[in-house]
Design brief:
With about 160 residues, the chain is α/β, with parallel strands linked by helices. It contains six helices and six strands. Strand 5, helix 2 and strand 6 form a beta-alpha-beta unit. The longest helix is centred in the last third of the chain and has 13 residues.
Length: about 160
Amino acid sequence: NPELEPSVGAVLVRPVRPDVAIFHVQRADADGRAHTWGPLGITEEAGLAARQIVLSCEELVDPSVTLSDPNRLLWPETKVVAVVPEPGGAHPAPLQGYWRRDHATYRDYHERTRSKEGFDGWSRDWVLGVPDRSAYLERIDREALRIRRHLFSAPIDYGDA
């Protein structure tokens, strides 16, 4: 059994290799370079494991912006097959510097999706029954979720002598 490691008696688990990973980031350029920050979890690893990446972003920026801080680039741009500017695209999740977590939407989801029937109803209301992005955005209070007080980090120096 090639999945068994006899020396320790462990079963080996093959790595997850998704065809596509989709991420919403703070900013990206049209060439597929993206900056993201905040609680990232396994975002970087998931992107590296995927064969291709699709990005949605709050801001589409000039490449000079993304290239100005190469330490924020989590994946090679050669893996990115699409960049979609879509402000609020992480909803109901928070996005540091842009959006708060929509607790009411999460609560509604958790309460309604405890059964298949509940999930079907929630899905009709929030996915299948929403004709387009504009209609979706009309259903949420974006102003209540928007970050208003910005706390910028100190600049860093990438210069040389």
